[in-house]
Amino acid sequence: MEMQRGTRLCQILTSFKCGGFALGVATNHATFDGISFKTFLENIASLAGGKPLATTPCNDRHLLAARSPPNIQFDHPELLKLPTGIDLPTPTVFDCPEGELDFKIFKLTSNDIAHLKQKAKDGPISTTAKVTGFNVVAAHVWRCKALSSGIDYNPERVSRVLYAVDIRGRLDLPPSYAGNAVLSAYASASCKEIEEGPLSKLVEMVAEGSKRMTGEYAQSVIDWGEVNKGFPNGEFLISSWWRLGFAGVEYPWGKPRYSCPVVYHRKDIILLFPDVVEEGNNEVNVLVALPSNEMEKFEALFHKFLA
Q1: Do strands 236-240 and 102-108 pair parallel, antiparallel, or not at all (unpaired)?
Q2: Is residue 56 part of a domain?
Q3: Predicted local confidence at residue 97, as pLDDT
């Protein structure tokens, strides 16, 4: 299938006595990001129903090539280049470290999200940033993760959160671009600011990270990667499946009742994804994997700052 050329995909099907079934899919971020993977699922659904592709994918990876010569126009603290002969930090944000981890899903209801938005709007420091669901949830999770870190507490320690931003519109890529067209935005603050500052300030910093990702900045990141061959540099990453719409794909047998990631061994990646599909349901699940002592702190802070 042309849309699948060069793609490695694994699927596992589990049937249930009730007549339903669960379909597990594994892919690679070098092939798809969340947006293009949804397009892939829509095309699979269309072909399964005997129809043509719902969207003809654009597979031209040259659209994200570095300029010649590269032109790095900005500082990029969200990226790390190591001097020759220096080993990578262990573990990096994308590693699977050894050790026992607790896995928990923290649910934020529509009322919880509305409450966080109101706290951000009513805080002692007014913000001109757009107070979106993602911005307030990311700010809340950032605060809990930074303050529950296993690193000895130091109020001056800087915590940097990374989160993905789609750059299709910023670089005028076709909406059907079928590759990995996301870059890591970031927000940084000291633990003291994170603990004592109002939610509105954290929301503003998260929003600023997305705003910073202009077309010029995105191209500078691409050029930086061509020159330095580095990798993302942050304390942890928030990966959001919340608005990707996997559960909205219409297969010949209907839409999924639930679409979620499988638990995996990633201490420094926190996943956001929607709850079971119901009319008017805007709830989000926060999947966290941490050592038990850090999980206890995270859970206590999660409820404390939600109050």
Answers
A1: unpaired
A2: no
A3: 58
Instruction: Give dist(CA 249, CA 232) in Å, integer.
Output: 31
Does the pLDDT of residue 171 top 50, yes or no? yes
pTM value?
A: 0.89
216 flagged as catalytic: no
Domain assignment present for 232: yes
Angle made by CA atoms 112, 138, 122, in degrees to the nearest 5: 55
> Is residue 48 one of the residues assigned to a domain?
no
Tally of CB atoms within 10 A around 295: 17
Q: Is residue 141 part of a domain?
A: yes
Considering only the C-alpha atoms of the chain, give the largest distance between any 2 of them, rounded to a whole number of Å. Answer: 60
Choice among 29, 208, 226, 283 that is catalytic: 29
Decide if 140 is catalytic: no
Higher pLDDT, 88 or 211: 211
What is the Cα–Cα distance from 235 to 241, expressed in whole angstroms? Answer: 20
User: What is the domain-level CATH number for residue 173?
Assistant: 3.30.559.10
For residue 51, the SS3 value is coil
In terms of Cα–Cα distance, which of 245, 290, 204 is closest to 36? 245
Q: What's the number of domains the chain is made of? A: 1
Catalytic residue among 196, 216, 250, 296: 250
pLDDT in tens, 30-55: 889 999 999 999 999 999 999 999 99
Indicate whether 74 pLDDT > 80: yes
| Distances 155 to 125, 159, 196, 197, 268 between C-alpha atoms, Å | 21, 10, 10, 12, 20
